[in-house]
Amino acid sequence: MGDDGDERADVAKTDGPPSRSETATSRATQLTEHLASSNPNGPNTGRRRRKPKPDDLPADYSDILGQLKQLRAFAANPNSTKTGYIRHRETGKLWVRDRIEQLLDKGSFREIGSVTGKVNWKQTGPLTEEPLDFQPSNNVNGFGKLRGRRICFSADDFTIRAGHADGALFAKTVYMEQLALKMKIPIVKLVDGSSGGGSVTTIVTNGYAYIPPLQGAHEIVAQLNAGIPNLGAALGTAIGLGAARLVACHFSVMAGDVGSLFNAGPSVVANATFEEGLSFSELGGPAVHCTNGTIDNLAANEAGCFEQLRDVLSYLPNCGTQMPPCIPEDDPVERLCPELRTLIPRKRERMYDVRKLVTTVVDKGSFFEIGALWGRCAIVGLARLGGKAIGVIANNAEVLTGALDAQGSQKITRHL
Questions:
Q1: Is residue 32 part of a domain?
Q2: Residue among 326, 390, 402 at smallest CA distance from 362
Q3: 289: which of 123, 155, 252, 295 fits an S-S bond (Cβ 3.0–4.6 Å)?
Q4: Is residue 327 a part of any domain in this protein?
């Protein structure tokens, strides 16, 4: 009887309702299995991965990377059959990327916005295409180095729309102005065209004229106030807003063989004033602007402009809160200059060469004159003493016996 009673008691315990702990364990197990089966990151054993089809786009974006490579190749090689490029070369001017190569230190060019422009696409499949032709923006921007100094630069491409405004130009130009301001590094501008001025094509398309906005003016003024060097070169016809960007620079230079600057070209002047037959040089060439102070210096050609840009930058800091670079000099600071004793005549009525005085006092070969062709009664420039950059101001005893006129005063004020 005792054994049978124990067995019945065990059966009763087994067949009875489950305990609370057993119920909780069962529910936790079910919940875990449900979450594991619905986890998107877990292995999906219920479905097979679809086999790739020939028309599927590559997972590594190699198609897009290949298109970018093609567009960069289009931009880096000019279309020698286009009229704009042929005329540009016939005038003796360098192509924009040849200019950049000659200006910057070798291998230092880093382009910004290299694939901005207009693309003609060819459909090669339901989801694929390839570029047939590419017209890049007519303004090349980027970073580079001048004698080891990092700079921002912008360079007009006159072969495309003669440097006039297009959709990509404004944004690129303003962006580089913003970068120069934010990074506090010098900016160099190679102007050949309107640099984003008005476009006759746009006027014809819209059916009305418009006043082109001066994009980047706020950034340019902020750069000047911050002492960030702005250097510009007229390497062709600087027109309209291109002329404005150039004359706003701290230092400007014009290529004597191809450079000119004006608000509007000879045809516009002829219609407005009936003065016909003016050439670019007669309207705004070196004989006009290098003698009235609009442009600081004159160079024989584009290579001469590049050399002057390098020279000027070597005297200037990156911004107004930094010191200019100090360059070691072989000229000893204890050097005696006995020629100075006889340089100034005893008779006050006689004139003497002030430039000889300046070049004798400063480090040998370091004097860089600015504005030699205008305001000639004053001499200003940059030089070094013991390797340190200095500014130079002097009255020219050989012009007006050293007295200052309006242009000479303006020249000194601007240099200060």
A1: no
A2: 390
A3: 295
A4: no
Residue 153 contacts residue 125 (beta carbons within 8 Å): no
Together in a domain, 374 and 252 = no
Q: Provide the domain count of the chain.
A: 2
Q: What is the pTM of this model?
A: 0.80
333, part of any domain? no
Q: How far is CA 293 from CA 147, 296, 306, 374, 406, in A?
A: 28, 6, 20, 6, 12
Distance CA 362, CA 340 (A): 12
Asked if residues 189 and 249 have their Cβ atoms less than 8 Å apart, the reply is: yes
Structure-block tokens of residue 151:
């700079």
Instruction: Please check whether residue 55 lies inside any domain of the structure.
Output: no
User: Which region, left, alpha or beta, applies to residue 240 given φ > 0 means left and ψ of -120 to 50 means alpha?
Assistant: left
Q: Which pLDDT score is estimated for 12?
A: 46
pLDDT of amino acid 150: 97
Mean pLDDT across 58-83: 87
pLDDT, residue 242, reads: 86
Q: Distances in Å between the alpha carbon of 352 and those of 37, 285, 355, 378, 393? A: 98, 32, 9, 14, 16
Mean pLDDT of 105-120: 91
Containing structural domain, residue 411: 340-415
What does the pLDDT read at residue 49? Answer: 67
Q: What are the tokens at 227? A: 């002492």
